[in-house]
Structure formats: structure tokens, C-alpha cells
Amino acid sequence: METSLVFFSQLNMCEPKEKTFFKLIHGSGKEETSKEAKIREKEKRNRLSLLLQKPEFHDDTPSSRSEHLAKKTRISPEEAMIWGESFDKLLSQKDGLETFTRFLKTEFSEENIEFWIACEDYKKSKDPQQIIRKAKAIYEKFIRNDAPQEVNLDFHTKEIITKSITQPTLHSFDAAQSRVYQLMEQDSYTRFLKSDIYLDLIEGRPQRPTNLRRRSRSFTYNEFQDVKSDVAIWL
């Protein structure tokens, strides 16, 4: 009888050890699995980091923009000098328009010239359905509140466009285009003529990498109420 009690007592003492051993083995497996998962996750992050460092994934970075600006060297100083005569002459020439657009990109204000170009294209529309489609696209991209590339317009001008967007005409954006033209002429164009991009061109120097500057404060049309711009190019 005593022998049986001792035997069962030994079994009871061994049981916790067996459970503990099993838990250690089982827990070790989980720990190993967790470590392997972390290693795999780290490897994925490293591969993604290396992938993102490739040039093709940085088309819109400051360095790539600067390199793109530096590639434009075919413009003669004589041609660039003409751009300094007036804002209208700058926009009327393809190279001038492209160079000014690249300058605005360095200031993160390219929505103004893109809106102006969109309006120029819009006025060439002939089909009624095309007019409606393009008008809505311009409104959604540049005019409505919180539009992805909203241009700076006074409330009255925006209100007129908003009310007429359901039945647009070829002249629906004339007032807005005129105001944006004036803002660029009085603000961005002045800085463009003093920029390294333009000065290097008129002096025949190779285009240097251009540092991006912080977005400048946008002027409102009310600050230029007395300015009368020639809008004949839109008629």
C-alpha cells in the first residue's frame, strides 16, 4: 500500500515537469516563428527601401526636377531676351511657355499656368458635348472649393462660373482666365525675369540645378484691381 502511494506521488511530481517541458518546447516554436516573421518583414522593408531609391521612382522629386531644368539648353539668348519684353510674348512662344511652366513648378504654383493653358484649349472646342465635358473638367480641377489645383479667384468670379457650369459657353472662363493672367504677370513673371533659370538663358550659360523654394503667398485679384491687362489673346 505504501509502495503504491509513493509511486503515484512520484507521478504527480513528474507531471508538472512534463507540462513545463511541453510548454517550453511549444513556446520556443512560437518564439522562433515570431523571429522568422520579423526577419522576413525586415527583409521586405529593406527591399522596398532599395526599390524606392531607384531613379525611376522619383520623377517628381526636387533633384529630378532640377536635373530636368538643367537639360534645357537649346534656347538662344536672343530668343530668351524677347520673353523679357512682355508676359504676352513669353506665353506666345512654345519654349517660353515651357520654361515659365518649369519655373512655376519650382515654386509649386504651376496650377495657374495649367489653368490658363486649359482655358486656351477649351475655347477651341466646337462640339457642344465636348464643351460641357471640358467645362466640368476645368471646374472640378481648378475652380470648385478644395479643388486639387484650385486657382486663387475672387468670390464673385467663382460664383458666376459655378452658376453657369451646367450650361457653359466658350466664354465661361474668360473672366477667371483674365484674372489668373494678371496675377501671373504681376507676381510670378516678375520673379521669373530675376531667376537663375532666365538669367542663365539670356547670358548663354548652361542651366544649373535649381533649388525649389517654398510656395509664395498667392496674391488675390483685389490687390490688382487697378491693373488693366490686355486680354485680346482670349477673344
TrEMBL record:
Alphabetically ordered keywords of this record: Signal transduction inhibitor
Annotated GO biological process: G protein-coupled receptor signaling pathway; negative regulation of signal transduction; regulation of G protein-coupled receptor signaling pathway
Location of the RGS domain: 86-202
InterPro entries the UniProt entry points to: RGS (IPR016137), RGS_sf (IPR036305), RGS_subdom1/3 (IPR024066), RGS_subdomain_2 (IPR044926)
Single GO cellular component term: cytoplasm
SMART domains for the chain: RGS (SM00315)
Gene3D superfamilies reported in the protein's UniProt record: 1.10.196.10, Regulator of G-protein Signalling 4, domain 2
Domain of life: Eukaryota
GO molecular-function terms, A-Z: GTPase activator activity
RNA-binding recorded as keyword: no
Designated name of the protein: Regulator of G protein signaling 18
Organism: Catagonus wagneri (Chacoan peccary)
Chain's gene name: RGS18
